[in-house]
UniProtKB/TrEMBL annotation:
Boundaries of every Mur ligase central domain copy: 181-279
Domain Mur ligase C-terminal span(s) in chain numbering: 304-434
Pfam families assigned to the protein according to its UniProt record, in alphabetical order: Mur_ligase, Mur_ligase_C, Mur_ligase_M
Domain of life of the source: Bacteria
Name listed for the protein in its UniProt record: Mur ligase central domain-containing protein
GO biological processes: cell division; cell wall organization; peptidoglycan biosynthetic process; regulation of cell shape
Signal peptide: none
Domain Mur ligase N-terminal catalytic: 2-102
Entry-linked PANTHER family: UDP-N-ACETYLMURAMATE--L-ALANINE LIGASE-RELATED, UDP-N-ACETYLMURAMATE--L-ALANYL-GAMMA-D-GLUTAMYL-MESO-2,6-DIAMINOHEPTANDIOATE LIGASE
InterPro entries recorded: Mur-like_cat_sf, Mur_ligase_C, Mur_ligase_C_dom_sf, Mur_ligase_cen, Mur_ligase_N, MurCDEF_pg_biosynth
GO molecular function: acid-amino acid ligase activity; ATP binding
Keywords associated with the record: ATP-binding, Cell cycle, Cell division, Cell shape, Cell wall biogenesis/degradation, Ligase, Nucleotide-binding, Peptidoglycan synthesis
Length: 447
């Protein structure tokens, strides 16, 4: 089959192209812009791609169009999309294609507003070590594997189930990606309100998870984080068996400190993530000792508490943290790991959720354990209504309610200078779902 992908330059869409090629399909693609390292990867796997979007990019012998990333959010009248409609081609979203090619009878889907990628990767590592050769899709880059999207011939699949809705194609309605993955087994890490632009109220956000667990088959299994916000409200709607896990709560079925973990991953929050994966696979009958050995050697995802440099004076850590709870967990992990170091937390307000006014109450208290908090320049998000946009000053004021040592430094040089001048020993914790490469490079070259 000849498949054309618009929005091909993203990490997951490029990985999807690789998977389709491995399955024997011919793949072409396009994007508004395409830059290294994605261009290098696409060249390596033999994909013909064009920029920018233009109806001429799509070959006449195309059999199916795949819409990936935010191509239709940016421009609902994408010329290649309109051409495909004129030609009467099947048009599918990214998660629909995963559902077609990757999902197996034993479908494990990890959902929740944090920890999805890490737990999904833990399943991939464990099931691989347990000789199950799973198909999988993980949004981040795995330290233990070279690919993050793989279709295999086993009857197991693992998917990171994003709750962010898929842009509507044709007359379809927006639906969270996780609905496309036909889960039999689900891990729910948390249902703390997130993605305010798509779920205007907390109730709407919770009900989305309720709908998911209602659809689980009776012979399925829901493994739920006892400590996760709103989780117990969601799980009471499940018709399948429910098992709980927790860091320390004795009322949970699986308690992290009772399992015997000696993990490679940093932070108590990652111990919780490992417990979720352990609970599911233990309940499904896998050998506990082999499972524990595998999870203890799991190295996680890139840019999740990744140590870029460490010596007796300075530690530099990169983390994806793009919500208050993730930032709080990252700071806590840094303090646990380096208790005698000062923590300089740099939180980049990059994701749309962090730029939404609803996040302000949650920012208060999220960075109180740091010694210094620095907020880089906050850029305007045109996708947000003016009434929910926030400024750098408002973010600082919210953080300042529990953390007086916070500064808004919109100028790059001032930010780097503040990081460098802070007394040692220190941990520089760089948190962003975007790129912080220039800051990383300047800090590292001075060490």
């Amino acid at each position: 089959m000849n498949i054309h992908i618009i929005g091909i330059a993203g990490k997951t869409s490029a990985a999807l192209a690789k998977m389709l090629i491995d399955e024997g399909h011919i793949v072409t693609g396009s994007d508004q812009g395409c830059y290294p390292p994605m261009t290098d990867f696409l060249d390596e796997i033999g994909v013909s791609y064009q920029t920018p979007y233009d109806e001429a990019n799509m070959p006449d012998d195309t059999d199916e169009l795949v819409v990936a990333g935010n191509a239709l959010i940016v421009n609902p009248n994408n010329p290649e999309y309109l051409k495909a409609k004129e030609m009467g081609l099947p048009i599918k979203s990214y998660p629909e294609v995963l559902g077609d090619f990757l999902i197996k009878d034993n479908s494990i889907v990890v959902v929740g507003n944090y920890g999805k990628g890490t737990v999904s990767g833990a399943f991939v590592k464990a099931l691989t070590d347990l000789d199950k050769n799973p198909s999988y899709m993980v949004g981040g880059l795995l330290e233990d594997f070279t690919q993050n999207v793989v279709a295999s011939n086993s009857d197991w699949s693992v998917v990171e189930g994003d709750e962010y809705p898929v842009p509507p194609i044709g007359d379809s309605k927006p639906r969270s990606k996780f609905f496309y993955y036909k889960p039999k087994y689900v891990v729910l890490t948390s249902a703390e309100w997130d993605h305010f632009d798509k779920f205007p109220s907390e109730r709407e956000y919770i009900e989305n998870y309720v709908e998911l667990v209602k659809d689980l088959p009776q012979d399925g299994l829901l493994v739920a984080n006892y400590d996760g916000e709103n989780v117990m409200e969601v799980v009471k709607h499940a018709s399948c068996r429910v098992v709980t896990y927790s860091l320390i709560n004795p009322h949970a079925d699986y308690v992290a400190d009772e399992i015997g973990f000696q993990p490679t991953l940093l932070g108590r929050f990652n111990l919780s993530n490992l417990t979720g994966a352990y609970a599911m696979l233990a309940e499904l009958g896998f050998d506990n000792q082999r499972l524990l050995h595998s999870l203890n050697h799991y190295r996680g995802l890139k840019q999740r508490m990744t140590v870029l440099h460490e010596d007796e004076n300075v530690v530099v850590v990169r983390d994806l943290a793009h919500s208050p709870i993730k930032a709080k967990s990252a700071v806590a992990a840094a303090k646990e790991t380096w208790p005698n170091y000062r923590i300089v937390a740099v939180l980049d307000i990059y994701s749309s959720s962090l730029k939404n006014r609803n996040v302000l109450p949650r920012l208060s208290g999220s960075l109180s354990d740091a010694d210094l908090v620095l907020i880089p320049k906050v850029t305007l998000s045109k996708s947000l209504d003016e009434n929910v946009r926030i400024t750098g000053k408002e973010i600082v004021d919210a953080v300042k309610e529990t953390q007086p040592n916070v500064k808004y430094l919109p100028k790059h040089d001032d930010l780097v200078a503040a990081i460098k001048s802070y007394p040692k020993p220190k941990v520089v914790l760089l948190m962003s779902s975007g790129s912080m490469q220039s800051i990383e490079e300047e800090i590292l070259k001075e060490i």
